[in-house]
Amino acid sequence: MKIIVAGGGHGGICAGAFLAQAGFDVTVYERNSRKNMGYDWTDIFDPKALKAAGLPFPEKDKFEYKTDMTFYAPSEQTAIRQRVPENELEIKMERRDIYDLIINHAESCGVKFEYEVNIEAPIMQGDRVSGIKTNRGDFCADMVIDACGCESPVRAGLPECCMIEKHPKKFEKFYVYRAFYNKIPGEEVKDKYKVCLLPEGKLGIGWVACEGDYVDFLIGRFEPFDTGEAERTADYFRKKNKYLGREIKRGGSFVEIPVRQPLSNLVCDGYAAIGDSAFMTVPIIGSGIANSLKMSGVLANAIISDQTKTYCAETLWQYQLDYYKKLGASLAPLAAIKLLLVRISPAQLDYLFDCEILTWREMTITADTTGLAKMIHPSADLPKRALSLIKDKDLVKKLLKVVGDVGKIALVCAAMPKHYSKHAVKSWTEKYENIFK
Questions:
Q1: CA 17, CA 151: separation in Å to the nearest integer?
Q2: How far is Cα 140 from Cα 215, in angstroms, rounded to an integer?
Q3: Confidence band (pLDDT; 50, 70, 90) for 253?
Q4: pTM of the entire predicted model
Q5: Pairing relation of β-strands 112-114 and 25-29?
Q6: In angstroms, what is the C-alpha Rg of the chain?
Q7: Of 65, 146, 54, 144, which is closest to residue 102 (Cα–Cα)?
Q8: 421-433, pLDDT tens digit by residue?
Q9: Kind plus residue range of the DSSP H or E element containing 265
Q10: Residues 90-110: what's their mean pLDDT?
Q11: CB-based contact 271:144 (threshold 8 Å)
Q12: What is the Cα–Cα distance from 134 to 171, expressed in whole angstroms?
C-alpha cells in the first residue's frame, strides 16, 4: 500500500516511519531542499514526545534544558517567574537538529523523500483523496497524510463534502517574526527569558531571551506586519533591554503559527491531517512539535489496524477518537483561554498581575501542560485573590464567559460520535465550531 506524506511536518514524517516499518510504501513530498528543512531557530518541547514517536534521544551536545520564563504585564511594572520542576522541564534544540534526528530515523525505516516539490492541491476521485497535485506532476496513493502546515494547500483544496475546515479564522493564527541579534556586553541579565504580554497595548506577545552570545527576539501578533514594524518594535524593546543589539546573526524571518482549537474533523476518505495541518498546537503558546510527535504513532496505528485496507473516513475515525481522548479534548479549552487574552484590556491584565490574582502557579507551563487541568492550582490565598477579582465587574463577566465556554467544550467533546457517519459528524463539528465563533 502506498502512502503519501504531503509536507515535511514532524508528525507526518514520524507517522511515515511507523508505516514504513510496517511494510507500507511511504514517500514524503516537501517544498524545501534537504539543507533548508526547518527554520533557523531553536524550539522547546516535551522530551517524552521523542519516545512516543519512536525516536532516539539526541546526543548531549544537541540539546539543553529550557530556562524558566519571566512574564511581564503590559505596563512591565509587575513580573511573574515560572517555577518549573526539574522532572517537567522541556528541552531546547535547533530546529534543524530536530529534523536531522527525524529524517535520519525515517530514512532508516525505509521512508523516501522528494524535496523541492511544491504541493498545490489534492487529487480527488469523487469524495476520496487519491493523491496530490504538484509543480512536478500528479502523484497518486492509497492515502495522503497532510503535514503541510497551518495553511495547507491540501486541506484548503478539499471539497465541502469532506466537512473539514479549510483555513484558520481571525485570532486563530499568530504572525510571528523571530531574529537572533548580537548581544551587547554589560551588566548581567536578571531575567534571561523575558516574555511581555500585550506589549505597547497591541494584541500579541514579545520576548527577549539571552542565548549565550546572542539575543533571541520574537514578536507574535494576530495581524500581519512587515520588517519595518518588526524593527520598530525591536527598538521599543531596546529601551528597557540594553543588551539587545542591532545586528541580526541569524533568523530574521516570518512564520504563521496556528493558535486555536484542534481541527474539528481530522479525516475523510483517503486523508488524515496531523501537526499544524490539524491545528495541534497548544493554543495559548503556539507550541506543537511535541503534540504532533505524540500523535504520529496514533495515526499510524489507525492506518495499520484498518483490516479493510480502504483507509476511508469510517476506519480512520479511530484516529480522531484517540487524538481527542489523549490530547484534543484537553487542548480545546485552552483556545477559550486564548480568546480571553484577545478580549481583555491591557489595564485589566495589569490588574491581574498587580493584585497577584495571577501567580507563578498559573504561569508555570511545563512539558506536561497539555490542558487546562494542568494549569489550575488551588492555593491557600485563593479567597484573597477571588475578592480582588470581583472588584472588576467587567473582568469577572469576561472570565465567566470563558468558564461557560470551557463547560460547553467539555460537553461537546464528550459527545463526539463513536462511529463515523456523515450526518453525525456534520452535526458534531457544527456544535464544536460554534463555541469558538
A1: 24
A2: 45
A3: very high
A4: 0.94
A5: parallel
A6: 22
A7: 54
A8: 999 999 999 999 9
A9: none
A10: 96
A11: yes
A12: 30
